[in-house]
Structures are given as C-alpha cells and as structure tokens.
Design brief:
The protein has 101 residues and is an alpha+beta fold. The chain contains 3 helices and 7 strands; from the N terminus they run E-E-E-E-E-E-E-H-H-H. The strands form 3 sheets. It has a 3-stranded antiparallel β-sheet with strand order 6-3-7. Strands 1-2 form a two-stranded antiparallel sheet.
Length: 101
C-alpha cells in the first residue's frame, strides 16, 4: 500500500520543518472590505486547533521555548504583517500546556 504524503510546515520559533499535525496553527482571518476595496474590519488573529479556518496561517511547535523565541523575535507579527495581541500569545501558551495528541 502506498504511503500518504504528510504535509510539512515550518515552526516560526525554531525554524524546523515538521509534520502539520505536530504543530499548532495561528491564523489571521481575511480582512472585511467594501465594494471599493476599503478595509472595514481587520482580520482577527486566533489559535486554530482544527487547522481548517480560512486565512493566513503560521505554525508553532508544541514547545513553550519555540513560542518564546517566536514572540521575542516578532516572527508571528512578521508573518501576519500586523501587531499580535497579548491574548493570542496567552491562548497559545495555554494550548501548549495541554498534552499533545
């Protein structure tokens, strides 16, 4: 039987390529615009546990040290081109405390 190819993603903290299932996804939802293209509402940044939300994604290992490195170097902010609220980092830290499946 042929092995199914697993998608690989890069951790923003350590820079290692890992299987998508081993990482936690942070997603920025698309901006809401009107007919003329003006931005009405900025996209919300949240933790995506299912990996299925629409929007731009960035990934972090299940390692608190990787999250700290990504926060210190502002890698998530660079990935999304906007400021990341502290609530998102707190939610990520909380998610990393739970055991990996």
């Amino acid at each position: 039987m042929k092995q199914k190819k697993m998608p690989m993603r890069k951790c923003t903290g350590c820079g290692e390529m890992k299987e998508k299932k081993q990482l936690v996804r942070v997603v920025k939802a698309p901006d809401v615009t009107d007919e003329s293209g003006e931005i009405l509402q900025k996209g919300e940044i949240s933790v995506d546990l299912t990996g299925k939300k629409s929007g731009r994604g960035a990934y972090v290992c299940h390692n608190p040290e990787c999250l700290a490195a990504a926060k210190k170097a502002r890698r998530l902010e660079r990935a999304f081109s906007c400021k990341i609220p502290d609530e998102v980092y707190e939610r990520l830290a909380e998610e990393l405390k739970t055991p990996e499946l």
